[in-house]
Amino acid sequence: MRTLIAVVLFATSSFAATPEIEALIEQLGNKDESVRLKAAKELGRLKEKAKDAIPALTTAITDKDEDVRTVAKKSLAAIKDAVNIVEKPKVPENVQVLIADLNSKDNKVKLAALAKLETLGQEAAPAAAAIVELGMMSPNVGVRDAANTVFEKLDPAVYKEIVTVYYDQDIAKKDAAVEKLEAIGFKAVAAAPVLRSYYTILAAVKRGHVPSRLTVLKALVKIDGKGLATKSIIFQVAALSDKALYLFDIPESFMPRRTIILDLLNALDIEDSEKATPIVSAFIVSGYPEHRKYAIEMLGGLEMEGKDKVAALIKVLQVGRAERALIIDEIGKLGADAKSAIPLLKTLKTDKDDAVRTAVTEALDAIKD
Fold first, then answer.
1. What does the alpha-carbon distance between residue 280 and residue 282 come to, in Å, rounded to a whole number?
2. In the predicted model, is pLDDT for residue 193 greater than 90?
């Protein structure tokens, strides 16, 4: 699900590694360098799907074979970029102090902080988001001008697109700028406050600017999926009622609203399973047929206690008639943790659906083993 949501403060994944990824991870330890090389290449090609391989690839960059080291390094970078993993540099104390000053209600204090940040050059990079949100977006003209000067020197490429999004009146130009920020990826994270502000403005127009709203949401997920404010927006959209969700239908692209929502959720590192579980479960129960498998896999992959995951899967199995075999498969994958599902599974051993009966038999075997 790549489309609702990478607070990538994670060293662990929100989704369990697939058998394919596990096999490739194992191959990274093979004695044959050609096998290791091929595995490293394939993991890089899989990008965000291979995020569980990050620890193994981190080890592989010290491989004794030079080709393996080179490919492992490239693959690691590709995966981290795809899932927005930013290895945060430690913020120097002097920069921390200046960021705190930018939060001051006194504009003179803010201006003094911006002047000092300008003298720091690239050392001020950790303050980029604060410069944008507390400076460039300030209601005070003097503070805005000073912040613009500082940020333009700090990151001219991102600055150019931020200015377009924030000031230009042409929607098409704004959309193009948003897409460029998305292409830059997590390195454009300082633009997140401006994108959130722009989305709020667009969302205030009922049934208006739908393509633009989707463009902004996708960009936010790409550059700031780990941000709490960004996650909040995504979850708000995901929780909209069907009556409100019709605003996200785009007939000309044949992309139903639910696909968009699921994609956004999946793009995030959903650490807050309590919020994600009911939303994803709702898609399984009432979503379009083509979305059910997608949502079932997502629910099965959420990071949560085994008993909680079983409870969620049991609930959707009890209330829904569609894709029951797939839901049962996910229950079986939990093994012994799914013992609470045994009574329900036994009642389905004589179900009229062959696929359901087969899935029940396999799940019960897996749980007992």
1. 5
2. yes
Phi-psi region of 147 (alpha: psi -120 to 50; beta: other; left: phi over 0): alpha
3-state class (DSSP) for residue 293: helix
Please report, for the chain, how many H helices and E strands are present, in that order: 21, 1
In a domain, 209, yes or no: no
Residue with tokens 């807050």: 272
Out of 36, 58, 82, a domain closes at 82
Q: Find out whether 195 and 234 touch, Cβ atoms under 8 Å.
A: no
Cα–Cα dist 40/75, whole Å = 7
Both tokens assigned to 33: 């360098």
Residues above pLDDT 90, as percent of the chain:
36
Tell me how many domains the chain contains. 2
Instruction: Tell me how crowded residue 178 is: count the other CB atoms within 10 A of its CB.
Output: 25
Confidence class for position 237, pLDDT limits 50, 70, 90: low
Query: String of b and e for 82-111 (b: at least 16 CB within 10 Å)?
Result: bbbbbeeeeeeeebeebbebbeeeeeeebb
Query: Looking at the domain assignment, is residue 119 inside a domain?
Result: no
In what helix (H) or strand (E) does residue 192 lie, and over which residues does it extend? helix 192-203
**Residue 76 belongs to a domain with what CATH number?**
1.25.10.10
Beta bridge partners of 255: 250
Determine the structural domain holding residue 21 and report its residue range: 3-82
Residue 45: inside a domain: yes
On whether residue 196 sits in a domain, the answer given is no
Is residue 97 a contact partner of residue 61, using CB atoms and an 8 Å limit? no
Domain boundary (58, 82, 106) is at 82
